[in-house]
Amino acid sequence: MKYGFFDDAALEYVITTPKTPLPWINYLGNKEFFSLISNTCGGYTFYKDAKLLRLTRYRYNNVPYDNNGKYFYIKDNTDSACSVVWNPGWQPVKTTLDQYECRHGLGYSTFTSSKNNVEAKVLTFVPMNDNCEISKVTITNNKETAAKLSLFSYVEWCLWNADDDMKNFQRNLSTGEVEVTDGGSTIYHKTEYRERRNHYAIYSVNSAVDGFDTSRDAFLGAYNGPDSPDVVAEGKCTNSVASGWSPIASHQINIDLAAGESKTFIFVLGYIENPEDDKWEAPGVVNKKPALKMLEAYKTEAAVDAALVELKNYWKELLSNYHISSSNEKVDRMVNIWNQYQCMVTFNMSRSASYYESGIGRGMGFRDSCQDLLGFVHLIPDRARQRIIDIASTQFQDGSAYHQYQPLTKKGNSDIGSGFNDDPLWLIAGTSAYVRETGDLSILKEMVPFDNDMSVAKTLMGHLKCSFDFTATHKGPHGLPLIGRADWNDCLNLNCFSEHPGESFQTFGPSEGPVAESVFIAGMFVKYGEEYAQLAELLGDDAEAKRAREEIAKVYQAAITAGWDGEWFVRAYDAYSNKVGSKECEEGQIYIEPQGFCVLAGIGVKEGLAEKALKSVEERLDTKYGVMILQPAYTKYHLELGEVSSYPPGYKENAGIFCHNNPWVSIAETVLGHGDRAFEIYRKTCPAYIEDISEIHCTEPYVYSQMVAGRDAKFFGQGKNSWLTGTAAWTFVNISQYILGVYPTHNGLSINPCVPADFGDFEITRKYRDAVYHISVKQNGVQKGIKKLTVNGKEVSGNVIPYESGVKEYTVVAEMG
C-alpha cells in the first residue's frame, strides 16, 4: 500500500498520513548548517559536525518513535468549555487531525494540517547562505466565526557535544545558560559561551510574544513529555529562565483571527560563530550583532519567500546536469530528482547523521566518502576536488588510511583507526572519477599531507601510488590482496583465530600474523589499478603505467585461478587459508561482492567465467526484492569469520539484500550486454518501483536503503538504514553510466547504453566539463551496441564523443544496433 505519492512537477514527495511505517525524513541544508526533519516534525539540527556542534537534542532508540523534534502546538480556545491542542505535524500530541499533508521537497518540507476549521501551514528550510533554519508558520481561520488561538513553539537545546550531552550529567546539568531579549521574542542558547566556546545559538520569532519559557521542567512539567506540556495545558507560559538542568526555547503567541483571516509568523533557529577579531566584551556576554543581522535578513515574508525561491532554483540548476526524458516515468523520476538528491545528501553527511546513525559514533568515512563522490562529482566538481584532498590528507605514508575522519577537524578518527585494506583503492576510484569528469590534471600535482602533517606531504598522485603499492605489496599465499581488518564488508573479519575455540580470539593487522586474503579487493585492484595506470599515462609516466599493469596482471591471474571455485568467484581465504564463499563451505557458499566486482572489472570475461558467475548469482542469490549478499545464511556463529555470522539469518551481512552492491551485479550484467537482466536488478531495489509495497518495505519510498531483509528473515523485504548509504552513488553510476550508458572518459563522453529490449528511445541532457550535450538514443529494440554515432551533424567512428575545448554545445544522435 501507499502512504503518499510523487509530485514530479513540484519535485516533491507528498505524504498523506502521519502514520507511516517508520519516520520518513528529509534533509535541510547544503553547506555547513543541517537539519533532519521527519513527516511528523521530529529531527535535529547541527552545524558542520553532528557530534561536536549539535544545536538540538534527539532521543535515539526512542519510544514512541521519533522523539524529539521542533514542534508547534496550537491551542484552540474558541470554545472556552472545550479547548483543543494539536500539532501541524501530528506529533507529539497526536490529536486526530481533520486533514494532514507533508511535502518533502529538495531542501525543504511543508506541513499542512487542519483541526476544527483552523488550518496551519508550516514551511521549514535552511537558506542557501546562512547558518539557520527558517520556519514560516501560517495560521488560517476557516470557521464562519472568529477564532481565539494560542501558538506555542518548542525546541530543546543540546549542550553542543552530543556524545557528552547524553552521558556527562554530573557536569552538564549545571552548565545550561540562556539569555532572553526583545520581551521573549529572541532566546539565546549560550551554554559554555565563555573561554571554552566562541559560538551560540538563537531561536527567535518576528513578533511580539505573550510569554516564553527556557526551562524544560517549567514548560513540560517535571514528569511530563512533549506530548502533554503543562504550559500548553494551562495556556500560559511561565517566563522561566533556565540555569543549569535542561534549557529549551519556547514562545507563546496569542492569536485572534476573524473568519477567513490568516496570520504568518517567521521563526529562526540559528548558529552564530563570532569572528576571531570580534570577541565578546566579557565572559558570558553575548555579542548580539551577528544574530541581529541574521534575524533582520529573514524578518519579512517577502524575504523568506525569496530565500525559498533561491533554494529551489539552486536545486533545479544543479539537477539539470543530468536529465533524462523517456517513456519510463519511474526511471525519469529517480534519475532526474531523487537519486541525485540523495547523492548530494550523502556528500554532505557520509554516514554520520541519520535516523540510523546518531551523528556521534561515526564521522566521514574514507571508503564511504570516496564512493559517494562517484555519484555527485558531475554536480559539484569544485567541492568534489576539495573532498578528495580532505580524504587523502588522512592517509598514512604506507598507503593505508584512517577509516573515518571528523568533518569539523578533518582529522582522522583514531578511535576507529585503520586496517581496512580496501580503503586505499577507493581513493584512486574517486580521483579517477573526478579527473575523467573535469579533465583537471592539476589536482594530481597538488601537495597533500599524510595524516594531516604537511612535513611529510606528497603530490596527490604520490598518494595514489602509495594506495596502489599498498595493495601490490600486501598479498597473501595465493597471490591475492590481504584483507586486513576487513574489506568493503566490515563484518567479514578473517584474521580472527582462536587457539582454544570459544575462549579467546585475536585480530591481526594487514602485515602480521595470519594472512587472510580478499578476492573482492582483487577485483578492485584490477579495475582501479587500470584507472591508476591511465592517470600515470596522462602525466606522461608511461613507465609507471607499464609497471602498474604488470602488477595488475598478476592479481588478475590469481583471481581466475585461486579465486575461482568452478561456478563462481571465491569470496576470500581466511587466516588458515580456508576458502570463504565456496561450494566447499557448509554455509555462506557464495557471496555477491566478488561476482559483481570481478566481472565489472573485466575479470573472467574472455575466459567465460563471468557468465557462469552471474548465472550463479541469479540462481542462488536472487529474490523478488533484490540480490542477497550471501547464501546459505549462517545459522551458527563462526569465530573464524568474525562479525558476519553474528546477525540472525537474512539480516545485514548475514544474507540480507545489500542494496549497495546490487548495482555491482547490474553493472556486471551490462559488461556482458545483458540489458534485460541489468534493468531487472536495478528495478528490484529502486524506490519508485517498490512504492506500492511501502507497508512491507517500511522506509521512505523516495530514497534508497542500505539493506532489505533477505528471504531467510522473518520480515523479508523490510528496508533498513535509509538515506546514508553507498547505494545512492552506486545506483546512480549504474543507471546513468552503464544502463543509460553515458560514461565520462578522459577523452570525452562515451555513449554505450545497455537497456531492456523494450525500453524505447530516450533523450539525455548531460553537462560535461564546460559543454552541454543533447543526446538522442534510438534503441531499435537492441539491448547493447552502437551502430552509428552522429555529433553535431557529422558521423564519428566508435562510441566516444571527442572532447573539443571551446565547443559549448553538442547535438548527438546514437543509433543502437
Automatic annotation (TrEMBL):
GO terms for molecular function: carbohydrate binding; cellobiose phosphorylase activity. It is an enzyme of class 2 (transferase). The keyword Nucleus does not apply. It comes from Butyrivibrio proteoclasticus (strain ATCC 51982 / DSM 14932 / B316) (Clostridium proteoclasticum). This is Cellobiose phosphorylase Cbp94A. Keywords: Glycosyltransferase, Transferase. InterPro entries: 6-hairpin_glycosidase_sf, 6hp_glycosidase-like_sf, Gal_mutarotase_sf_dom, GH65_N, GH94_catalytic, GH94_Enzymes, GH94N_CBP, Glyco_hydrolase_94_b-supersand. Its EC number is 2.4.1.20. CDD domains: GH94N_CBP_like. One of its GO terms (biological process) is carbohydrate metabolic process. Residues 314-741 form the Glycosyl hydrolase 94 catalytic domain. The keyword Transferase applies. Residues 12-299 form the Glycosyl hydrolase 94 supersandwich domain. It holds the Pfam family GH94_b-supersand.
